[in-house]
Design brief:
By secondary structure, this protein is α/β, with parallel strands linked by helices. The protein has two domains: 18-265, Rossmann fold, CATH 3.40.50; 283-664, no CATH class. Helix content is 59%, strand content 7%. The protein contains 20 helices and eleven strands. The chain has a nine-stranded mixed β-sheet, with helices on both faces. The chain has a two-stranded antiparallel ribbon with strand order 5-6. Helix 12 (344-391) packs antiparallel against helix 18.
Length: 673
């Protein structure tokens, strides 16, 4: 078992995913292949150069290493196989291929097949180059293309009702879903290279269909027209008939791909106050995250002590607790990955890339949450103490000169006020509140990636506002690009395992976590509520008792002397002397107890214990609903419905993050009024 902090680097290796689609040979002119080969070779070289330059110009965000470029393809006959052969021969350095010449980038090939390998070969056995009466066997070429892939994902055959096939031979109700394979590929690419004559397509999964889907999804599409004399150009429009219109500029010229890739490699620097950064620049927030060191402890234990007491236990510690990234967290992920069996390549990526980043963000979130929460507990508590120190000036004393006693109290109160001011200023300057919220959002979304990655789904393209406003969303997507697609068969058994693993290792722990939050935070809310009531009651009793005592002696005066005036003489011997001694104490308690109540109110307002418990109650209900859907889905797995359910799961859990940020987003440290 490796130590997670030894695997971890907050900065990322630059990763780029290049999809490819192309016509089959029967749709190309006889001399089109050599022209397409030359264009693809020069185009991939331009992509490599642009990736290297973008990485160099944004080196502060990335590890000092080569960019990793993935070619994503279905390896279909024609343009797909041609691109894979070029990358394998000219760009990729793999030991079994005898490639020794250095390249500026590390290339790999990811294959996404529309069916299990055997069914795909059977469906593609007759080459599109075949002429009437002279079939050409394409099985050998397809098997050779499979051998080029570093990862090979096999999508299932689908029945007409959408159920994933378990792996039997194709029957009359089982089909290869080329359209699904196209959408799957688009989820895993940043730019698409289409070997396409720009004419309307003839069916799903063809070059025209894939180019249209990518264009509509906002993925840049570079068209290599094998039948024309024009250079590779960017697709700018698709008309109603499905024909493509291209830009005039050659994509291979300097600066074209640098501009296309700039939104991927560069961190947005625009800040929008109405979004999640609160007006702070995303690049500065990311730079702060990358500068963080691996936390050695979980920060101040004040809030943990409060939660422990609220749970009905006496706290065993009043110090900072060390973190345990290797044991508990790695064990949790081991259980999940054992259930879903994502394949060796993805399993390694999840363990060595995603898990350390998740634990790092999660432990930082805990650290800054404890710093922030302990800070406001301390600030409000010391504010109440400052009031009591000031009120002690009214206390009767004989051992010190009254003026000297007042000076001592004034010095103590000034020290407390300075401490409170510095604590608030330091916490705001170090952005404990902002770091807590951002790191928590990053950690939770990184955890969602583990089950989405196993099913090859990373969600949709973010909006422009999200990309501008959330640095952690940029970091998340950079991590997703690096992880890549799953490998192996994504058949009914695999989908069933992913659903079961998500239900048992994601949803159930989340439900238990939220039940714990409800239990503890409702108790904290009740404890503070009853303390406030007790303070109000005690204040009323002190004042009422004083009034009753004074009133009793006043009525006795009226009864014995007939004098209705308050003519008590301070310091005179007699029954009222002790009342005058009690008067300063009454003033202290009458003002000091409400100060404690105000501090408790400030803690309750800032902590949002009731709102947090209500949020967790809603999440438990939502998770229960999801688990019912999982149970129904596990009884009969439909591939498309399973995909929607996994995306729905990520959406529901993300809503919890949004609600969390909405509750605490406006609760930064402030001086107590």
């Amino acid at each position: 078992m490796k130590d997670l902090h030894l695997l971890f680097f907050a900065s990322l290796p630059g990763a780029l995913r290049v999809g490819v689609t192309g016509h089959r040979p029967d749709q190309l002119q006889q001399d089109a292949t050599p022209r397409a080969r030359d264009d693809l070779l020069s185009l991939f070289a331009a992509i490599e150069t642009a990736a290297v330059r973008n990485l160099e110009s944004n080196s502060q965000w990335y590890e000092p290493s080569k960019p990793a470029i993935r070619l994503v393809s279905s390896l279909a006959e024609g343009g797909d196989q041609l691109a894979a052969e070029i990358v394998a021969r000219e760009f990729r350095a793999r030991a079994d291929e005898g490639q020794t010449r250095p390249r500026a980038a590390d290339w790999s090939i990811d294959a996404i097949l529309p069916a299990p390998k055997g069914d795909y070969v059977a469906a593609s056995r007759v080459s599109a180059r075949s002429e009437s009466g002279q079939p050409v066997d394409a099985a050998g070429q397809l098997l050779a293309a499979f051998a080029l892939a570093d990862r090979l994902l096999e999508l299932p055959l689908l029945t007409h009702d959408g159920t994933a096939d378990g792996g039997d031979k194709p029957g009359p109700t089982k089909t290869l879903d080329y359209h699904l394979a196209a959408r799957f590929m688009i989820w895993h690419i940043d730019v698409l290279v289409a070997v396409w004559n720009r004419k309307p397509g003839s069916g799903p999964g063809g070059a025209a269909d894939v180019a249209r889907l990518a264009f509509e999804a906002g993925v840049p599409v570079i068209v290599v027209d094998p039948e024309g004399s024009t250079p590779p150009r960017r697709l700018i429009e698709i008309d109603e008939s499905g024909a493509g219109e291209l830009d005039d500029a050659d994509c291979r010229r300097a600066g074209m791909f640098e501009e296309i890739f700039s939104t991927l490699f560069a961190v947005p620097i625009e800040a929008e106050s109405e979004h999640s950064n609160g007006g702070e620049e995303p690049d500065k927030l990311l730079n702060g995250f990358l500068a963080e060191s691996w936390p050695e402890n979980r920060g101040p234990a004040d809030f943990d002590v409060l939660k422990t007491i609220a749970s009905g236990h006496w706290p065993r510690h009043f110090r900072r607790l060390p973190i345990d990234p290797q044991g508990r967290r790695q064990g949790e992920w081991d259980n999940f990955l054992k259930e879903v069996s994502p394949g060796p390549a993805l399993d390694k990526a999840l363990r060595e890339k995603l898990l350390p980043r998740f634990v790092f963000a999660d432990e930082l979130a805990v650290l800054y949450a404890n710093k922030y929460r302990s800070a406001y507990l301390s600030v409000y508590s010391w504010a109440a103490i400052a009031v009591w120190v000031a009120l002690l000036g009214f206390a009767p004393q004989t051992s010190l000169d009254p003026l000297c006693f007042k000076v001592i109290l004034a010095v103590i109160e000034i020290c407390i006020i300075v401490y409170i001011s510095l604590k608030v200023r330091f916490g705001r300057g170090k952005k404990w509140h902002r770091r807590w919220l951002d790191y928590r959002a990053l950690a939770e979304t990184l955890r969602h990636v583990r089950f989405l990655a196993c099913a090859g789904m990373f969600g949709g393209k973010p909006t422009a506002a999200e990309e501008r406003s959330a640095w952690w969303l940029w970091y998340l997507r950079a991590t997703m690009r690096e992880i890549g697609p799953p490998d192996g068969q994504l058949d009914a058994a695999a989908i069933h395992a992913i659903l079961w693993g998500t239900r048992t290792e994601e949803l159930q722990p989340q439900r238990e976590y939220h039940k714990g939050v409800i239990r503890v935070f409702e108790r904290i809310e009740r404890i503070i509520h009853w303390m406030e009531l007790g303070i109000v009651t005690l204040t009323v009793l002190v004042l009422a008792g004083f009034i009753v005592v004074v009133g009793w002696y006043w009525f006795d005066q009226v009864r014995t002397t007939g004098d209705y005036a308050f003519a008590f003489k301070e310091g005179e011997d007699g029954p009222m002397a002790w009342v005058y001694q009690l008067k300063p104490l009454v003033s202290i308690f009458a003002a000091g107890l409400p100060a404690i109540g105000a501090a408790l109110g400030g803690i309750k307002f800032t902590g949002e214990f009731r709102s947090t418990a209500l949020r967790s109650t809603a999440m438990v209900s939502a998770i229960d609903d999801l688990e019912e859907r999982y149970d129904a889905m596990l009884r009969g797995t439909k591939f498309k419905d399973a995909r929607r359910l996994l995306l729905r799961t990520a959406s529901v859990l993300s809503e919890d993050i949004n609600a969390f940020r909405a509750i605490f987003g406006q609760r930064n440290l402030t001086l107590p009024a």
